[in-house]
Write a structure and sequence with these properties.
Length: 280
């Protein structure tokens, strides 16, 4: 069909041609979004359309995605990466009752695996619990303390956390080892660990890993360690942090959400300073 878009080739018979073209344009746009973000559901697609100035009911988007077979059903795969049978001390869950109201108040961390042809590759990540932004990550063929320490070093170097920021993890040996705990204490981070065998204690980072697997890992045929080292950083920095809409953030990407919060804080501070000057 000469590689034309649907909106350039539509039925020219009876009926409302304007509505037909509008519908075709919308279908083209939805397909464009799903091509860039293959695992987006209809609500996230609706939010992206809104960001681009296209106001449309989510039920209409769902109908179109169903008609075009753009709804993806994801099979869940689970494998444990936590070894909590170790000699090291464990710490209480500080995050359970914490009210996180800004960046660098609490970080959440975890490890996941990525299969290649002959082995597994391991990814350690640290997210800011407020903005869901990935602030530290490391990739290795070994699931050891050096993997988690590398992700922690990145987070500390890029964020410079204030004294008292919570660092939350599972009870795995990679997080409980003396070297890792010493790094946390040296950075002034408060140590928090999830209850044994309870993934809901670390739900935010579990959600990220689910997104990573469904929107990146399961869509690519990784063959080598180099393939993983090339694709995963791109997904984290260019897609997840920069572009992907997060429902918990009002359908904003993490980078944009942090920028909006910073602008709001600065605006409120400026307003307060102005009012103080006027009072004087």
């Amino acid at each position: 069909m000469l590689n034309l878009s649907r909106s350039s080739y539509y039925y020219q018979g009876t009926g409302d041609l304007h509505k037909q073209k509008e519908e075709a344009d919308l279908r083209d746009k939805i397909e464009e979004i799903v091509v860039e973000h293959p695992r987006y559901g209809y609500r996230r697609v609706t939010a992206q359309l809104k960001r681009e100035g296209i106001i449309v009911n989510h039920k209409r988007v769902l109908r179109i995605m169903q008609e075009e077979s753009l709804i993806c059903k994801i099979k869940k795969k689970w494998i444990t990466t936590t070894d909590s049978k170790h000699k090291y001390p464990v710490y209480p869950n500080l995050l359970k009752d914490a009210k996180v109201t800004g960046v660098n108040q609490a970080w959440v961390s975890d490890i996941t695996y990525i299969r290649i042809l002959t082995a597994f590759v391991y990814l350690a990540v640290i997210l800011d619990a407020f903005s869901r932004k990935v602030i530290g990550w490391a990739i290795s063929l070994r699931i050891d303390t050096e993997l988690t320490r590398a992700a922690l070093r990145m987070a500390i170097e890029t964020r410079r956390p204030p004294e008292g920021c919570i660092h939350h993890s599972d009870r795995g040996v990679q997080y409980a080892a003396h070297e890792y705990v010493d790094d946390l204490k040296a950075a002034g981070l408060r140590i928090s660990m999830a209850r044994k065998g309870n993934p809901y204690d670390n739900a935010q980072v579990e959600s990220f890993i689910k997104t990573l697997k469904s929107e990146e890992v399961y869509l690519w045929d990784y063959k080598t360690f180099g393939d993983v080292k090339k694709r995963i950083p791109y997904f984290i920095e260019e897609v997840y942090n920069e572009k992907r809409l997060h429902s918990a953030l009002g359908y904003c990407p993490p980078n944009e959400y942090e920028e909006l919060v910073a602008k709001s804080i600065n605006s409120n501070r400026q307003t307060l300073l102005t009012s103080e000057v006027l009072c004087v």
